[in-house]
Each structure stands twice: as structure tokens, then as C-alpha cells.
TrEMBL record:
InterPro entries linked to this entry: Homeodomain-like_sf, HTH-like, HTH_AraC
UniProt keyword Membrane present: no
GO MF annotation list: DNA-binding transcription factor activity; sequence-specific DNA binding
Organism per entry: Micromonospora parathelypteridis
Protein name: AraC-like DNA-binding protein
Location of region: Disordered: 278-330
High-level lineage: Bacteria, Bacillati, Actinomycetota, Actinomycetes, Micromonosporales
Start and end residues of each HTH araC/xylS-type domain: 176-274
Keyword Oxidoreductase: no
Keywords linked to the UniProt accession: DNA-binding, Transcription, Transcription regulation
Family annotation (Pfam families): HTH_18 (PF12833)
Gene3D superfamilies the UniProt entry points to: Homeodomain-like
Biased composition (Low complexity): 316-330
Length: 330
């Protein structure tokens, strides 16, 4: 349990003698800036459990309220900033190799969840024990096995709590396959035809699946993912705007500027300037775990400063979803 402010933290969870394959540490350790003036790009799989106090976590431009029992699932590549009043949290991080050999869907836990009752008690107990064991045991084969099994139990418990017991429709399966392909391919191509070829289906099939699940076309899904990545890099790095555009496949800065303005509603420069202003501390209620056809069709919009942005496409709905130069990374 660790603090974003100056209050003392309990002795466990601040360092780990065991290999960083699995670790627990301070929430404040995710940012070099105690004030979190700039978001950081997360580089590991994370669970963040709020244990005391109240505050906000801005994850991929969604402002999520945090209080005791709030659990955040943060994925590599997302941008995170913690704002508002002081609150304490335990962070669990792991590398994908830690779950090798376990039949676990690490993406099952939703992005934001307010735990309560027996679920909260069980998760707090397991996270606390994991933090204690990270601190107590020197690196060894036995210690690594213990931590891997503890992490597996924690993720399985969260997966059970988040499980959707209904059978997925064929359109949903096609849509999620498409999302996985987009996640790997968006820096290289924004053509629906390329993804259809890789998935061995027609453009019409992809578009029909996307419309059925999200109300948006396949091309919109791709463009929203590109715009989300652009927003991440603009907010959390000091890379020149033209360089960000080149990374995302735009040979001309003007083309990138027009694309971003069309998708987000403001220019890349204006978006970056707004994100560097001090963040508002007002708690904003997030949307509940949403169907993919959520408000505004899930389009990525930055929103007013301090308001929850309507974040872009992510691989999994559920939120109220080469090293860069000068980047803030966790």
C-alpha cells in the first residue's frame, strides 16, 4: 500500500527482492513527477487497488474516480495520470511470461471496478499477501513459483467476477479477432482490405460485425485506434508532432494534422497543450462497464479539461479499455 502524497506507506510493497517478473510497488513510483503533471505510458501489465482516500485516475483520457476498493486494470501502452486528492494504492505489475502455463485470460478483468463485500475482502487479502511475499522472499525458483501461482489465483478470481456467461455471437467473435489484428497492424495500415485478407474474410463481413457490436464501421474502428495512439504520444511524450505522424504512417504532417483534427475535434498541437495544463481534481462518475455501443459510439474525444474524455477503441470495453524520445514511461 503506497501513497500519491507524503503520508507514510506501510513497509511492504515498496521494493521487491524477487525478480521484476512480478512486483508490487508504490503508485507514486509510476511517475517521476510527484504532481503527475504529465501522463505516463505504462510498459507493464498492472493492477492498481485503491486502499485509502479518494482521488482520480485518468486512464487513456477517461477520468475514473478511485476510493477504497476501486480496482483498475491497466495494460501496456495505455497512458495513466493520477490527479486530485491524495489516495493510497497497491500496484501489482507482471510480465506476460509470468502466466505461461496457466489457463488464464489476463484481459478478463474489466478496466474499472468498484469491489465490495466478499469480493473486496478476497482481493485485498490476495494483493496484500502478494506484496508481502514479493518483499520477504529472495529470488529463487520456489519464490517465483509462489508469486506466479498467487498472481494466477488473483486474476482467476477477478475473471470469475467479470465473467459474461452468455454465449458470444458470431459477430462478436469476428469483431474481437479484428480488434486483435488492428492492435498489431494499425501502425502499418489503415486499409480494411488488409485486415480482411489476414482474417480470411470479406470487407463486408468485417464491417457488418463492427456495426453489429459497436454501431461503427470497420474503417472507423481502425481510425479511432490510430487517433488514440496519436493522443497517447502527444500527451505523454515530447516527440515532435511530425514524428508522431510518421510513426503512424503519415508521410506528410499536414495529412496527420487533418486526420487527427477530424477524429478528435482539435489539432494535435491544441490537444498536447491542453493535456499539459494542471489537471482538475473534481471526481467525475465514470460510465459503468459499457456495451461496445456506449455513449457517442465509443469515439475518441478529448473532452473539456478535467472531464472524462470519450476514449477511443480499446481491445476490451469495460471502463466507466521503439522507446520514444523524452517520454514519461512507467
Amino acid at each position: 500500500m503506497v501513497s500519491t502524497g507524503s503520508s507514510p506507506a506501510p513497509p511492504f510493497g515498496t521494493a521487491s527482492p524477487v525478480t521484476d517478473e512480478i512486483a508490487t510497488f508504490a503508485l507514486a513510483d509510476l511517475s517521476r513527477d510527484p504532481g503527475w503533471r504529465q501522463p505516463v505510458i505504462v510498459e507493464q501489465e498492472l493492477l492498481i487497488l485503491t486502499t485509502r482516500g479518494h482521488g482520480d485516475a485518468e486512464l487513456d483520457f477517461h477520468l475514473l474516480p478511485c476510493r477504497p476498493g476501486t480496482l483498475l486494470r491497466v495494460r501496456p501502452g495505455q497512458v495513466l495520470r493520477c490527479v486530485g486528492p491524495q489516495f493510497d494504492a497497491t500496484v501489482v505489475s507482471w510480465e506476460p511470461e509470468a502466466l505461461r502455463g496457466f489457463d488464464i485470460d489476463a484481459d478478463a478483468p474489466v478496466t474499472w471496478r468498484q469491489l465490495a463485500g466478499e469480493d473486496e475482502d478476497a482481493v485485498i487479502t490476495e494483493v496484500s499477501q502478494l506484496a508481502v511475499d514479493c518483499q520477504r522472499h529472495p529470488d529463487s525458483r520456489t519464490a517465483r513459483a509462489l508469486l506466479r501461482h498467487q498472481l494466477a489465483v488473483l486474476l482467476l478470481r477477478l475473471a470469475l467476477a467479470s465473467a459474461d456467461r452468455s454465449e458470444p455471437r458470431p459477430e462478436e467473435e469476428t469483431f474481437h479477432r479484428f480488434c486483435r489484428e488492428v492492435e498489431h497492424g494499425y501502425p502499418r495500415t489503415r486499409r480494411v482490405e488488409d485486415y480482411a485478407l489476414g482474417l480470411r474474410c470479406s470487407v463486408r463481413t468485417l464491417t457488418r460485425a463492427c456495426l453489429a457490436v459497436t454501431g461503427r464501421s470497420a474503417k472507423q474502428i481502425i481510425d479511432e485506434r490510430v487517433a488514440l495512439q496519436a493522443g497517447r504520444l502527444l500527451a505523454a511524450t515530447d516527440q515532435p508532432i511530425a514524428e508522431i505522424g510518421r510513426q503512424l504512417g503519415f508521410t506528410e504532417p499536414t495529412n496527420f494534422g487533418r486526420f487527427f483534427t477530424r477524429e478528435v475535434g482539435v489539432s494535435p498541437g491544441a490537444f498536447r497543450a491542453a493535456r499539459l495544463q494542471p489537471a482538475a481534481g473534481r471526481v467525475v462518475r465514470p460510465r459503468p462497464p459499457a456495451e461496445p455501443t456506449g455513449a457517442n459510439g465509443g469515439r475518441f474525444r478529448p473532452g473539456a479539461l478535467g472531464e472524462p474524455a470519450n476514449g477511443g477503441h480499446s481491445g476490451r470495453p469495460g471502463s466507466p479499455a521503439g522507446p520514444a524520445r523524452g517520454t514519461g514511461r512507467a
